[in-house]
Amino acid sequence: MSLSEEVRRSDALALLGQLFVTLGDGPIDCTFFDCSDAVYAEVKITSWDELCSEGLLIKKTDSFYALTANGWSEGLIRTDVVSTSAFSQRIGQLAKSLKDQIKGRQKSAIMPFDDVVRFASLPAGWVFNAIDSHLISRVHGKRDASWFEGARGRVVEIPRDFGLIEVDLFADVRAENLKLMETVERMEELYTDYRCDICSAPLTTRGSWEHEYGSEEIMEYACGMTIGAPYGDTPCTQSPNFPKFEDLVLTTKYDGNMWWCFAHAKSCSIYLSNTSAKTEEEAKAEMHNRYLERAKHWKR
Questions:
Q1: CA-CA distances (angstroms) from residue 242 to 157, 216, 233?
Q2: CA-closest candidate to residue 28, choices 136, 124, 147, 156
Q3: Which of 144, 158, 255, 286 pairs as cysteine with 109 (C-beta 3.0–4.6 A)?
Q4: What is the DSSP code string of 77-146?
Q5: Every domain of the chain and the residues it spans
Q6: Which residue has better confidence, 230 or 121?
Q7: Coil, helix or strand at residue 282
Q8: 134-137 contacts: CB < 8 A, separation 24 or more?
């Protein structure tokens, strides 16, 4: 019997909390968890897979796993460690130590990791994890230190603007996009037929036409589907009702100068303009090309 989504989520997060507590102040890059260990006997293997798929764990061998930087910081939050005074003291101590290294400098500071640990007077494993996960940035939203390129675990780069509140340069663009998305969602709620129900192509034209019995609404979509057209509906090109080329009735006519080809669909209304060529076969071939162009599937 398969587990519900909520149960799977709960089990995976419980495992994450257990691994975080087991890790303690150890570094995530060289601390491994064996899923075959007796302590994890009650843990479902799918929970390990769930954490891996979310980028919180990384599988090292068939049975050994390690926390990722995101997994470690997520563990901090899920176990509510971030609300403790001990955590506040630690992260404040690390931030002050890093800030001291750039006082009066106009450039970023490059420091061996061992010196960062020594100046901060904090467990090396915890400091490694904090740098690796950009903990200061995640918790306080401030510019953080990071590993110097190609020197993870060995050299730390402290930017000259360390500790400043990070500025979101594209917040206004995201806000406008959010408004646009909300507008589209409202339109889709108001107009359930806003998109083709087969390929999701958007509605391009909405209007009406008059006939002897009144008026009829007509809707045209980007995929070519039409509903309510004077000469009948046209199906979406991805619909099984869209005619194949061999289903069309082709007629040809020679006007003394050129051969003309005319196409008619028996099952639905599909418009293909007439084609002409020097020979009858060429006119039919041109009609086939025209059909292939008309029958293309709509793409986002």
A1: 61, 23, 11
A2: 124
A3: 158
A4: HHTTGGGSHHHHHHHHHHHHHHHHTTTT-SS-EEEEHHHHHHHHTS-HHHHHHHHHTTHHHHHH-B---E
A5: 5-77, 84-158, 171-227, 245-294
A6: 121
A7: helix
A8: 134/69, 135/73, 135/76, 135/91, 136/91, 136/94, 136/95, 136/98, 136/163, 137/166
Six token digits for residue 56 = 């919180």
Token pair for 149 = 């390129």
> Residue length, the chain?
300
DSSP letter for 225, please: -
pLDDT tens-digit map of 129-188: 999 999 999 998 889 999 999 999 999 999 998 988 766 667 777 778 888 888 777 766
Q: What are phi and psi of 104, to 5 degrees?
A: 75, 5
CA 4, CA 115: separation in Å to the nearest integer?
48
Distances (CA, A) of 37 to 18, 63, 184: 13, 9, 51
240-251, pLDDT tens digit by residue? 999 999 989 999
From the CB of residue 110, how many other CB atoms can be counted at a distance below 10 Å?
Answer: 12
